[in-house]
Specification:
This protein has one helix at residues 62-69; strands spanning 2-6, 12-19, 23-29, 32-38, 47-53, 57-58, 81-93, 96-105, 108-123, 129-140, 159-173. By secondary structure, it is mostly beta strands. The protein has a single domain (2-173), classed as Lipocalin, CATH 2.40.128.110. Strands 1-4-5-7-8-9-10-11 form an eight-stranded antiparallel barrel. A hairpin with a 2-residue loop joins strand 8 (96-105) and strand 9 (108-123). The N and C termini lie close together (11 Å). The model has no long low-confidence stretch (mean pLDDT 92).
Length: 175
């Protein structure tokens, strides 16, 4: 069984949420970890886990980041991490997969499914074998207890329920 660890320097965990239903606010997590175990060359037997530090959330706005860490959203003091456990990859065709796993945000765990594109495997100049994956999906923030909302005087919703996720990940095969 081969074990892979995320290469944080060559990976990014980002999300987008509609603000006022007219533009997206983009954010990311700067501290995260992931591991994958797989024996199959095509990763169809992969077991995947992922964790992000909620306090590392960044939307390039300190006030907004503070609000996201508060009880209105992630409640970072009580629930400092979000995680994906029991993750598996299912081959759809070619380099396209589905990632299925149990996502936990706050104290809510739900099974999710994301699209995955396998970018290939290469050896870097230091002899490390790396595999790349692009993961995309969408979740309902309200299903995970992130229910804060407001409506403007004109009737515009401040923050959409849908959260788009985009993860670009390099995994390093462990010796």
């Amino acid at each position: 069984m081969a074990t892979f660890k995320i290469d944080a320097a060559h990976s990014e965990i980002t999300f987008k949420v509609k603000h006022l239903m007219i533009t997206n606010v983009t954010g990311n997590f700067t501290k995260f970890d992931a591991s994958m175990e797989s024996e199959a060359a095509d990763f169809t037997d992969a077991k995947i886990s992922f964790e992000a530090d909620v306090n590392s959330i960044s939307t390039n706005n300190e006030q907004r980041d503070g609000h996201l860490k508060s009880d209105d959203f992630f409640s970072a003091e009580k629930f400092p991490t979000l995680s994906l456990n029991n993750g598996t990859l299912k081959l759809v065709s070619g380099t396209d997969y589905k990632l299925v796993g149990d996502l936990t945000i706050r104290d809510v765990t739900k099974q999710v499914e994301f699209d995955v594109e396998y970018g290939g495997t290469a050896t870097d100049p230091y002899g490390q074998v790396k595999s790349g994956f692009e993961i995309n999906g969408k979740i309902s923030r309200k299903e995970f207890g992130l229910t804060w909302g407001a409506v403007t005087e004109a009737g515009n919703v401040m923050v959409s329920d849908d959260v788009k996720l985009a993860l670009n990940v390099q995994m390093i095969k462990q010796a």
